[in-house]
Structure formats: structure tokens, C-alpha cells
């Protein structure tokens, strides 16, 4: 699951969804290779999320926390009619509140559901070095390198007060938090591998009594 939101002038609107989908497929392949007893299926991605902080930029479509949480709950109820386990692989930070709420409810109903984030150490916040590098690795034809430009590189914690009141537009005119001009495909491959390794490792440790977010 990801989002449909602006990612600066150089990345596609479905950047988060592409990354989450690629990570989910890679993790499923690795888990299938590691076990002859379990069958892992990857559902089509959920491409709309909670992206209100990007609403000032054209192209952004946000369905908000309430609608997303409801969607995830109904998705989970349906899928667990036949699936023993359900894992949401998340590529957008704005989805976290809805994910926590939905997975908590699904688990209270006796369903073995959890979620896992696509994370990498030292990642910048949005459409910068990290995401641009990963897209250069998985979707190079869709990165407009002639349009990229550096955005606000301040730590996210410093930007949050302004973002809470005015969204990303309050801290970056181009919608970028970080510096995409330093991105490379080789760096993207390294970051993507770290995301897959982390998610696969957390899934391997998943036990029926685990909390909703796999860490």
C-alpha cells in the first residue's frame, strides 16, 4: 500500500505505491524460496492513502485516515476468510495512524494481521535522495532527472510544526524534503535491498501474538 501524491517535479505520483509493491514482491519471493510449506500471495496494491499534508500540490488524491482505516479493515476481513495471515507492506508514512487502527481492530477480531514499513537507515523525508535513488533502481524511465531540484533538507522533526499547520507546501515550494540530485541507481539498489532485508527479517520473526507493527 502506498499513496497518490506529489513527489516533486521529477517523480511519479505513485512513487510510494511502486516502492511498497516492489518490496512486497521481493519479500514474497524470498519467503517462498525459504520454505516449502508456506504460500505467500501478493495482492494488487492499494494506491490511495492518507496524504493530506500534500493536498496543496496538484495530482495529490488523499482519502484521509477514517476512510483508509475502514478500507483496510474491510480488506482484512475479506482476505482472512481464506488467508491464514495478512501483512500490509506500507510505503507511505501518512498511512501509519490508519494502519495501527485497522490492524488493532482486525487482531481484536481474532485475525492474524500485521503491517510492515519500507524503511532504510538515514533516509530523507520525501522525494529526496532516498526515494529518487530507489526509483532509479526499479523505474528509471520514470525519473525526470532534468527536472529534479533540491528541496528543504532540514531534519523532519524541525519541519513538523510548520507542516502540521500548512502541510509540505509550508516548508518546500517544490514539494521535496531532501536532495534528489545526489541519487543514483546503485544507491537505490542498496537502499531497496535494505528495505527487503528488513521486511523479510521482521516477517520471519512474526508470531501469532505479535503486535500489529512488525519491528
Automatic annotation (TrEMBL):
Tagged with keyword Metal-binding: yes
Keyword Metal-binding: yes
Highest classification ranks of the organism: Bacteria, Bacillati, Actinomycetota, Actinomycetes, Mycobacteriales
A UniProt-annotated Pfam family: Creatininase
Gene name tied to this protein: mftE
Highest taxon listed in the record's lineage: Bacteria
Keyword line: Hydrolase, Metal-binding, Zinc
Stored NCBIfam families: mycofact_creat
Family to which the UniProt record says this protein belongs: Belongs to the creatininase superfamily.
Name of this chain's protein: Mycofactocin system creatinine amidohydrolase family protein MftE
Cofactor(s) the record lists: Zn(2+)
Stretches that traverse the bilayer: none
Amino acid at each position: 500500500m502506498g499513496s497518490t501524491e506529489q513527489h516533486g517535479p521529477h517523480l511519479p505520483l505513485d512513487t510510494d505505491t511502486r516502492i511498497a509493491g516492489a518490496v512486497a514482491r521481493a519479500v514474497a519471493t524470498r519467503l517462498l524460496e525459504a520454505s516449502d510449506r508456506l504460500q505467500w500471495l501478493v495482492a494488487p496494491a492499494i494506491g490511495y492513502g492518507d496524504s493530506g499534508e500534500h493536498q496543496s500540490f496538484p495530482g495529490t488524491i488523499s482519502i484521509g485516515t477514517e476512510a483508509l482505516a475502514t478500507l483496510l479493515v474491510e480488506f482484512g476481513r475479506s482476505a482472512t476468510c481464506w488467508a491464514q495471515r495478512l501483512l500490509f507492506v506500507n510505503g507511505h508514512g501518512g498511512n501509519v495512524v490508519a494502519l495501527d487502527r485497522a490492524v488493532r481492530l482486525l487482531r481484536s477480531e481474532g485475525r492474524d494481521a500485521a503491517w510492515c514499513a519500507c524503511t532504510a537507515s538515514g533516509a530523507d523525508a520525501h522525494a529526496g535522495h532516498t526515494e529518487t535513488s530507489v526509483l532509479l533502481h526499479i523505474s528509471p524511465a520514470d525519473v525526470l532527472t532534468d527536472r529534479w531540484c533540491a528541496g528543504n533538507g532540514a531534519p523532519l522533526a524541525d519541519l513538523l510544526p510548520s507542516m502540521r499547520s500548512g502541510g509540505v507546501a509550508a516548508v518546500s515550494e517544490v514539494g521535496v524534503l531532501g536532495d534528489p540530485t545526489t541519487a543514483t541507481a546503485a544507491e537505490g539498489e542498496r537502499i531497496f535491498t535494505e528495505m527487503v532485508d528488513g521486511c523479510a527479517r521482521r516477517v520471519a520473526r512474526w508470531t501469532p501474538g505479535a503486535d500489529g507493527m512488525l519491528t
